[in-house]
Amino acid sequence: MIIAIDGPAASGKSTTAQGVATRLGITYLDTGAMYRSITLGLMDHGISLRDLSSIEEFLNTVKIEFGDSNSGSKIYLNGRDITDKIRSTAVTEKVSVVSAIGVIRESMVQIQRKIGGNTDCVLEGRDIGTVVFPDADFKFFLVADVEVRARRRLKDLDELGEEQTIEEMIADIRCRDELDSTRDHSPLVKAEGAIEIDTGKLTIDGQIEKIVNIINQ
Asked: Model pTM greater than 0.90?
């Protein structure tokens, strides 16, 4: 069984997807974290986003793994725990541009399909229901007002010890929305047949409950 949860930045996809997977007892695949991991790796190696040859070489050396600990889920890039680093402002500012690069999307989609083809799972991202698994058993599209999403991201940054104003965050999110929805490769669009859920009007538990009820019905 494949459950696809798509939506714009900070619409609540990751937390909701993780909760749904836990409730159903199946695998949760954080595809957004995968793109953030690649973004961090390219930054750490000083690889220009215009240098497609070096990007392809880097992708051939990449190993992304997910794990769990007492403090929650973890993600590793070539054996290094990068769970907190990928949520930094520096990575957030670049991830939409990195995600729009064709060779990167192709590489990540292959990995996602391989994992999803072997297990029941919940996947969240921008193109799960449109490109990665267009025949997913269930498709959801999460939305929320831009200010609601901005306040969520500010809370995340505060936990990382970073500061930004609400005005700056709203501008950043609007920019990401524009990049995500207008890119050439796998733009952010609502998949045909996807059920839209406004997460700005629900608690996290409410979002999870609504999706689980729809699936169980």
From this structure: no
